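Predict the 3D structure for this chain.
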Amino acid sequence: MFTLDPASATPLVLQIVDGFRELIRSGVLRPGAKAPSIRQFAHAHGVSVYTVVDAYDRLVALGYFVSRPHSGFFVRSRDSRPDTAAEQGPQYHFDSMWYLRRVFENRNLRLKPGCGWLPSDWLFGEGVKRSLRALASDAVDLGGYGEPKGFTPLRQLVRDVLAEQEIAVVSDQIVLTHGSSQAMDLVARRLVQAGDTVLVDEPGYPNLLFSLRFLGARLIGAPRTPQGWDLVALEERIVTYRPKVFFTQPRLQSPTGSVASLAQLHRVVQLAERYGVRVVENDIYADLDPEPRPSLASLDQLQRVIYIGSFSKTISPNLRVGFVAAHPDVLEDVAQLKMISGLTSSEFAERLAYGALIDGRWRKHLRALRQRLAQAQQRVAEQLERKGFELFAQPGAGMFLWARHPSIDNATTLAYQAAEQDILLGPGHLFGLDLQPSPWLRFNVAFADDEALWRFLSGATSSAGRG
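Done. Predicted structure below.
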């Protein structure tokens, strides 16, 4: 088949990827051919199973392999792909969600320091129960689909919440959605067509990146810094690539936890106006921020900025209620797309969220949650630094810390090893534009305060250092 050279400067993962790509391009492996199983290949070539898993995952993401449950990996038919695809860069397929399904979103693992949600006992469970009891006693009409834009009292409440953040809207400028993921998907489908150039945070939000790839967008990265963005690189890429839209998360960004300063926000709004770029602001962690910061939307007042929020992070991730606030010329199309794709959102869920939000203990819950996260941020940051990790930023708020260790070159391998120890990690390649190996890991501080995690990381980094 092909040989691997452990002494080569090229990592083994990339040698495997390049080897299979050449076999496929040369016709030695035909479309539909079954690839060797992961364990077969690992045994035959004397390499780690984790190395082969990483390589196969990358071949799936690049469109050379397709994964079939319980059957293995097969060469994907590539007859319809243009010869210029290699010149355009990697072409992604939704099969790259394979890793997410198998590891990243595996809720069955005991420890979940790589996940993107809060523990159940950190959420507003009692408020949801009180809202549910009140809802059960009301005469709720179960015979209709609800309002196209969502439950009116909740939209009015969102309007008032946004007014506190100095974003002036009327309730008709708000569409409720099935969580923030649907909100981002609807906005992306309204703004992006196949072939459009789109600017995104780098590293960025995985679900959004997969959604944009699926739409056929050409993704250009806006590098994050601990203070927000690299503004020089941002403007250079706007000028060079002329993106149609910039999808970004200024506050408590996932995965880095970084927070953009006011000066940075002003500059992004100026650049958007100067170069005619739409901005989609993902602000789903606003309720976790103890500071009353401005947003891009508050500076722009929804002229060019589209604002996305969510209640799922702080009430319950199972209660899928998010929203879009935008200028009417965009908002009405988003509402239409919502109706086309799924009719209305669940009025029952929206009423349930509304009841929790008007509960007198809601604001007290948020204050306690922010304090709890701040304490966890400090403890986990100290632990990571004691273990030799470098922190990208120390926001002191929110769920995430972004860290790397000098002895770890590929966090994906570490993530597979952790999964075998019942630990879910968030490897950096999932947050990248090209799914290339990354040494970075996203840590959720609400799940990272566990001695078993630190024992695993100590052993893994020590053995990697010796290797």
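Residues 373 and 418 are 24 Å apart (CA to CA).
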